[in-house]
Amino acid sequence: MSDVQVIKANKSENRFRGRKVEILRVAAYCRVSTDSEDQLNSYKSQVMYYTDLIKKKHDWSLVDIYADEAITGTQVTKREDFQRMINDCMNGDIDMVITKSISRFARNTLDTLKYVRMLKEKGIAVFFEDENINTLTMDGELLLVVLSSVAQQEVENISSNVKKGLKMKMKRGELVGFQGCLGYDYHKETKSISVNEKEAEIVRYIFNRYIEGAGCTVIANELENLGYKTKYGSSRWVQSTVIGIIKNEKYKGDALLQKSYTVDFLTKKRTQNKGEIQMYYVEDDHEAIISKRIWECVQLEAERRKKYLEEHGTNSYSRRPENNPFASKIVCGSCNKVFARKGWRSSTGIDRKIWQCSERYKVKGVMGCSNRHVEEETLVKAYLMAWNALVENREAFMERWKEQMQSENLLEGYRAEKFIEYTDGVQPLTEMDTDFMLKTLDYIKVFENGTLLVVFLDGTEIECRSEKE
């Protein structure tokens, strides 16, 4: 058997990516996890420390100091300078990365291993000072797995303690996580909110228009046309934004805390709290923009509209009232679904607007609901006739309205109060007023025998006969 000669390793030599290097191109990565003054000072100290350390090594050459301020360590994708450093490594500009500890590099075990292995494949070392780990050594990865898992557990413990602290604050009624909303400014120093009067006018407009009968899409369009802007300066308004405002209890001076919560401390993913964890309700927490009565009336109106849409098989309320005032307000007396507006042209070339049950030709070519169509002109006449009859017989309704004003249902009381106001000393209507119609009309039900039942928002029902079609 031949003799085997052992050739000792030359540990003084540096070799990276299959090549011998005389000067090691070194980068440092530093991070602080909060934006407190102490932590930011720590960040500056880290930058200075690594700059001096690398410059003192005769065989090291400083590439750059990569540093992220006030950014969580659990998600590397949110760290811009970290990603810049990785890209520079992949481009072949760095031989070694030095950082204080595993927890500074990443507190997520999977991310730590992912990037360490990625760099190792390129022959790039990561040196963790506190743990004295060089990822290019044989025992580095095993120790890395253990210690990074410990670091991740540390983050989980910190997250749990933070949650407990926030929970205690919410129990005391303190606003947590609130940064302000339209109509309010948040004061970080005092952790309080105050009314922004300019924005508050927009909020009042939204609530007033909603209780007056306007739909959320209509209100959004009106806000754009008026040049109003959102809390974040956008001139674009959408239905969901309006809905969010009318549902927000802060406008009546109360505060519901923990509406959302963090599902995963690693991903920081948040989700709406639908009863999974405790919430905290604080009454009279701050100055109100909307009275409690109006706010509650709006919530009852929102619930009423929801039931109305479900009952009549439609998905929108009060669309484009300027050119289609009866949208969603004409109901079939046979199947209880809404009527749709259609344009007809007669043999004489005269255009007409007619309303027809949406179930009549739901399937193309197949007759559905047998209810008759009705002329839009007939609907206008029916509304005017019914309203004028109500005004003329005002005294006959007064007793019921006064009873309704004492009702526990705030919306019912509000409607009665408004109908007393609307009918006081007014002249009969001679033409359609769309805005006023939206304030007063619930719906008109059309029956096959030609009967039209006009139902007002106060609950009053008045029958009319349609003209023969």
Features:
four-stranded mixed β-sheet; 20 strands; alpha+beta; 13 helices; Hect, E3 ligase catalytic domain fold; five-stranded mixed β-sheet
Q: What is the class of the largest domain in the CATH system?
A: Alpha Beta
Q: Give Rg in angstroms.
A: 35 Å
- Write down the domain tally: 3
Structural class: alpha+beta
Q: How much beta, percentage-wise? A: 15-25%
CATH-derived topology of the largest domain = Rossmann fold
Mean pLDDT: 80
Going by CATH, the homologous superfamily of the largest domain would be Resolvase, N-terminal catalytic domain
Taken from the alpha-carbon principal axes, the silhouette is elongated
DSSP summary: helix tally: 13
Describe the protein's topology.
Layout: E1 14-16, E2 19-21, E3 24-31, H1 37-56, E4 60-68, H2 80-90, E5 96-99, H3 102-105, H4 109-121, E6 125-128, E7 133-134, H5 140-171, E8 184-187, E9 192-195, H6 197-211, H7 216-226, H8 239-247, E10 255-257, E11 260-262, E12 270-272, E13 280-282, H9 292-312, E14 330-332, E15 339-345, E16 351-357, E17 374-375, H10 376-392, H11 394-405, H12 410-422, H13 434-440, E18 441-446, E19 451-456, E20 461-465
Parallel strand pairs: 3-4, 3-5, 5-6, 14-18
Antiparallel strand pairs: 1-2, 6-7, 8-9, 10-13, 11-12, 15-16, 16-17, 18-19, 19-20
Helix pairs in contact: 7-8, 11-12
